[in-house]
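Incident review: delayed structure delivery

Summary: a single-chain prediction request sat in the queue longer than the usual turnaround. Root cause was a stuck worker, restarted by the on-call engineer. No data loss occurred. The affected request and its eventual output are reproduced below so the record is complete for anyone auditing the incident later.

Affected input:
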Amino acid sequence: MTDADSAWFHHSGTTVNPDLRLVCFPHAGGTPNSFRGWAQRLPAGTGVLAVCYPGRHKRLADPLVHGMEDMADRISEALLPYADTPLAFFGHSMGAGIAYEVALRLEQRAGVRPLRLFVSAFRAPHVRVASDAPADDSTLVEELRALGSSSMAALDHPDVLRLVLPTLRADMGLVAAYGSRPADRVGCPLVAYAGDQDRGCGPDTMRAWSQLTAARFEQRTFAGGHFYLEPREAELLADLSGHIGDDLRLWHALAATGGGRG
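Output delivered after worker restart:
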């Protein structure tokens, strides 16, 4: 594994010989801190790989990535050294689209199928319509604030805003340009999460993800808006833990009989 590969991930939980790695993909403007503390509330033996996109956290000096395809290609390549262990993916908002694209690439190009894909608060790519990102900075910032994340409070500080604005604009441009793509199905089960007060991507909208899996589809709704997962973190992690436990039991049963992933 190269330094470039390891820069993509922040490790927590079981880091040596984990039973499963949960790869977590943050929202636009997000960092690995979005998943701080998750490992302690997931099943024992779970390692968490929180993705760190370029241009933030410890990668402030790294060139920004402006396209979904490029982002997914790079993360897929960086994940290959970790594919010796069962993987599951969780992505919130922009991260859900990236997680889906990475899952497709790993399965189609490397024969690696995640045990499960969890997508949260993001319109399914085959029903998305590409658009333009906000033209001016003030509109961009107001749109981000309206989503309701506690992390957006940092945008009230001018020095912080100047530092993160290029990254936010790159992420929002990536999201705006992503859409109207074929309905390629992942081979793993898929779970879709939504906040019941999310005006842009509520439960009805998330149901379209059912068309993007060749396996079982499930959906769960939590009280809250686009960032429901902040106040409802305990409930979300309990649901994730239940699925992870079920998937591991099935994986071990298949391994014992000569089966496995794929």
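Verification: The chain has one domain: 3-127+183-256.
Action items: add queue-age alerting; document worker restart procedure.
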